[in-house]
Design a protein that fits this description.
Elements (H helix, E strand, L loop, with lengths): L1 E11 L2 E11 L2 E6 L6 H8 L7 E6 L2 E2 L3 H5 L2 E4 L11 H11 L5 H14 L15 H13 L5 E5 L7 H14 L4 E6 L2 H5 L4 E6 L2 E7 H5 L6 E6 L1 H6 L5 E7 L2 E7 L9 E2 L4 H9 L6
Parallel strand pairs: 3-8, 3-9, 6-7, 7-8
Antiparallel strand pairs: 1-2, 1-4, 4-5, 9-10, 11-13, 11-14, 12-13
Helix pairs in contact: 3-4, 4-5
């Protein structure tokens, strides 16, 4: 179990990245949602022992920040941006990471490297130079490096950003398989990644906890506020873009779904809310720019 208690981080006198965040996270996939700048990466870097909190406590399977080296032994971390040595092969890179993680016996290291290569479906490319890898393959190589050492907690920050739809599905399935008897903390601003993978999530807004709990409770924030209607292109352009959940062209009209406290008119009818609609209703006008 991962426990965050009144976690805060202040960079300058008036610049709070996090304020009094308390969470309890069990096994399985747990989502961390929020717009860019909400504090997600700061929270994850604190849990990964990369930066200290200003105040508050962190406990990861009984290990606390008083002994960060103990936490590092049970976690794997995949940051949003990761740099590789392009002249290394995938296998060489993972072997190097294994050494850095303290897997000292060469035979044990080779077995773990082979195991994670198979898990991320990179066995056939293991002998190719990293510079020849696609963006999706590099993300899979990153997750393979995080899986070395068989961590109990896997922390992943915006793992599907920039991936094509097929790679996103592959990546989500990989994380879901890994989380069967362990914990995956998945941070993203892509609601679909949370909706298809997690049962519970937390939402950060301007460094503070705006929501925590099952996704079905997040959906309820949009009860009676989700409308579907057919509009013209001109009418669609007049709707607040941060309130439009989805839109698709159907012949000469556009069928769109919008979050609004009251009916926007134009023949709108109420429809059941999605997780994304609940997220938008919760945050109001706050969206990524």
């Amino acid at each position: 179990m991962i426990q965050l208690d009144q976690l805060s981080k202040r960079y300058t006198k008036n610049d709070w990245a996090l304020r009094d965040v308390s969470l309890t996270i069990g096994t399985g996939m747990y989502g961390l949602l929020g717009p860019n700048g909400a504090g997600k990466t700061t929270l994850m870097r604190i849990v990964a022992t990369l930066i200290p909190p200003t105040s508050g406590e962190v406990s990861v399977y009984g290990h606390t920040l008083k002994r960060p080296e103990d936490i590092r032994k049970v976690i794997g971390y995949l940051p949003q941006s990761i740099q590789f040595y392009p002249s290394m092969t995938g296998r060489e890179l993972l072997d190097y990471v294994g050494v850095m993680k303290g897997i000292r016996h060469a035979a044990d290291r080779r077995k773990q490297v082979q195991d994670v290569l198979e898990q991320v479906h990179l066995t056939e490319k293991a002998s190719a130079k990293v510079r020849t890898y696609s963006g999706g393959m590099k993300r899979r190589l990153g997750i393979a490096s995080a899986l070395l050492g068989n961590p109990q907690l896997l922390i992943v920050d915006e793992p599907t950003a920039g991936l094509d739809p097929e790679e996103r599905v592959r990546f989500r399935n990989l994380l879901s398989r890994f989380s069967v008897d362990r914990t995956v903390l998945l941070s993203t601003h892509i609601v679909a990644d949370i909706e298809t993978s997690c049962e519970s999530a937390a939402v950060l807004s301007r460094g503070q906890l705006a929501f925590r709990g099952p996704l079905r409770e997040l959906q309820r924030h949009a009860d009676g506020k989700v409308w579907e209607m057919e509009v013209t292109e001109r009418e669609l352009a007049l709707l607040p873009p941060h309130r439009v959940v989805a839109s698709r062209r159907e012949g000469a009209v556009v069928r769109c779904t919008i979050v609004a406290e009251q009916s926007p008119g134009l023949g709108a009818v109420l429809v059941p809310p999605s997780v994304e609609a609940g997220y938008l209703a919760l945050l109001g006008g706050e969206r990524d720019g």
